[in-house]
Write a structure and sequence with these properties.
The complex is a heterodimer of chains A (527) and B (177). Chain A is α+β, with helices and mostly antiparallel strands. Chain A is built from 18 helices and 16 strands. In chain B, strand 3, helix 3 and strand 4 form a beta-alpha-beta unit. The chains are: A alpha+beta (527), B alpha/beta (177). Chains A and B meet through helix 8 and helix 18 of A and strand 1, helix 2 and helix 3 of B. Bound molecules: iron/sulfur cluster.
Amino acid sequence: MTANRESELDRLLRELPGTVGPTSQAGVIRCNCGAAEMLAAVRSLVAVSGRLADMFAVPVAPSKDHSGSLQRVTVFALDRLGVYVQLSSPITDGATEAFTTVIPGAYLEECEIFELWGVVPEGGTPLNRVLLPPSRETSGPLRGSRHRARSAWAPTEVRAPQVVQGEAFEFPVGPVRGAAQESLYLGLVTTGEELLDAYLALFHKHRGIEHRLVGLAPEQALFLVERCEGQGAVGNALAFARAVEAAIGLAVSEPAARTRALALEMERLYNHVASVAAVCQATGLVVGQAAMEILLEDCLRLNATALGHRYLFNVVAVGGVQHGCDVAALEASLAGICDRFSDSLAALLATNSFVDRLENAGIVSAAQATRLGLVGPIARAAALDLDSRRDHPWNGHYLGLGVATEPDGDVLARLRVASKEVAETERLVRHWLRSSELLDISDMPGQPLGGPFETGPAEGLGWCESPRGEALAWVRVAGGRVGAARLRPASVRNWRAFDDALRARNVFTDVAIVEASFWLTVAGFAR
Amino acid sequence: MTRRGTSSPSLDATAPVRAVSVREAADELHRRSVQAFGRSLHIRTVDTGSCGACEAELRLLSSPRYDLHRLGLFFAPAPRHADCLMVTGPGTFAMDHALMTTYEAMPDPKIVVAVGACPMGGVFGPDEYTHSDLSAQLPVDVYIPGCPPSPLALLQGLLLALDRSQARRHGQPELGA
Ligand code: SF4
C-alpha cells in the first residue's frame, strides 16, 4: 500500500465513530459501534467511496436455537484502499436504523434480516419477501419453528395473467420453467411485446444452508458450502475456507494457494463459456450455441481430468486443497480450448443478426451498478473498474492483472467482458504453469485439519473473485465448530439489478437474453 | 442406482467420456424408448432446490457431444406432453405445490427419475426447509446417483427408467425391485 493510501486510511479510521478493534487479518478492519453510531459510520464510509459488500445479523453468542441477543454486521469494501471494513453493532429492541436512506443497495439485506430475525429497519422503505416464501413466519425461520410439524407448503396466492393497467397484463413465468432451468418466479408486465415491468421471486429454493452450517466442523461445512451454488463451488468454498483460516489462524502453503487460484480460474473459464452458449441459445443462434457447448463440455472434461471433478467440487479444503492438479493435462488442452473460444466468439461478433439482438438489450448503467453495489462481470460491463483479485489481493498471484471493462452496460458489453476475461484467465494459467509451483496430482493434499481447535470464539472474513464477481463469507468458529456463518455469493448482490435491466426499453423476447447474459444462479441467492 | 449388473458404460462422473460409450448408450436408449412408448420420450424437469450443477448436466444432454434429440429424446415444454419427470434438488417445501401440480398434469404412464444425490437425501437432511428424499413426495422409479450425475450417467438412468416402465406396463416384476 502506498504512503498516500496509508495516510488516507489512518485518517478514515481516526474519524470513524466506534472502536476500531485489533485485527489479525490482513486486508480487514473491524470496528464495533454503538447502535446510535452506526448511521454516522456508514455515512463516513460512503463518503470515501465505500461499497456495501454485505450486511447480515447474527447472534452475539453461538446458540443453535438462536435465542439471545443479536448484532448487525455490515461489511464495506474500500476498493481503492484495498481493505474491507467490518462494522458490528448490537441490535436492540428488535429494530435497527434503516440504511436504505443512505445506501439504496441495502434494501435486500434489510428484507433478509427482517425475514430471518424479525428485526425491523426503522425509517426505511416498505419491505418485500426475498428469502422465505410468504407462508413462513417472519419471526425468523429458527425461532420457534424448529419443532414445528412439517407440512406441504401451498401458496397463499396463485398468480395468473391479470390486467395491470390499460392493455398491460402480468404474464407469470415459473417457478417451474423450461428444460433444466432453475426455479424462480418472474412476473412480466407486458402489453404483448413491450416489457413494462418485471417482478422477481427467488425464494422457492431457499435451503437454509447458513443455518445448517452451525455446529458442523469447518471441513464438514465446506461440503454444504460447495453445494450452495454448484457452478460457483470453488469461489464460495474458497471464500469460506479463507474465512475459517482467518478465524483460527491457519496458514496455507504456497503451492496449495496457487492450486486454489488455478481452480478458481478454471471455474471462471467454464462459466464464461457457458454464459456465451446460453446467450446464443436465447437468441436462437444454434450454430453458435453448438460451438460453445462443445467447448463447455471440453472445459468440464478438462476440469475432471486436471482437478478431479467436472464442477471442481472437493478441490478446496480448509487449510489447503484436497486435490492436486494434473499439470500435463492442463498444458495439453487449455490453449486449444481458449483459441477455439476466441475464434468462435470473433465469428459470433461478426454476425450482425446476432449482435443486433444484444445491443441496447438489458442495459445496466454505471449509476445503477454503483447504487445497487453490483460486482463482477455485470459491474465491469457497466464501466465499474472492480475486481477483488486486484483490489483485495490475497496472494501475489494476480500481479499485473488486466481488468476488462466496457462502457455500455448492455448484453453485448457483458459478452465482450467475458471474452476478455477468458483471455486473461488463459494468460494467468499459462504463466502459473510456466513459472509456479502447483500441487501436482501425485502430491499430498493440503494440510489435514485437526480439530477441535483450541481457539476461543474468533471471526474471519473470506473473499475471492468468483465467476459472477466478488464472493464473500463470514464465519465465527468456536471450539472447532462453526458458531455462525454467512455466505454471500455474487448472485446475492447481482440479482437485484435484473428487474431494472428488464425495465430498460426491452421487448418480451429479450428476457431470456438478458437472463443468459447475467449468468446468475438462483441457488446462490436462495442459499 | 437400483440396477442389476450391466455392461453399460462407466458411471464415474469424473472419468473422461469415450465417444463410443455415448453412442452405445444412446442407441440402446432409443431402442428401448421406442419399445416402451412406441415413439420418442418426452422429459419434464423440476428443480426443487438444486445447486444448479444437476441442471447444467441435464442441459448438456442436448448439446452436440450427446445430442439426444437424434434419438427421439426431448425436453417437453409442458407437463401435459411429458412421459418422464426428472427431479433435481432436496425438495424444498416452497416447491411442493409446483412439483405436485407438474406431476399431476402429466398423463399416465409416467415415470419419475430422481437426479443426483439431493433427492436421494444425500446432501440435505429432512428439516424445516426440505423433504430431503423425493420418495416422501412421489413414487420414484429410478435414482441416478452422482453429485452431479454426468450426462452419461443421466443417459444410463433413463435406460433404467424405461426398463421399469415397460416391466410395469406388462405386469412383470420390476428390475432391481
Ligand atoms: S445432487 Fe449435487 S450437484 Fe446435484 S443439485 Fe444436489 S448438490 Fe447439486
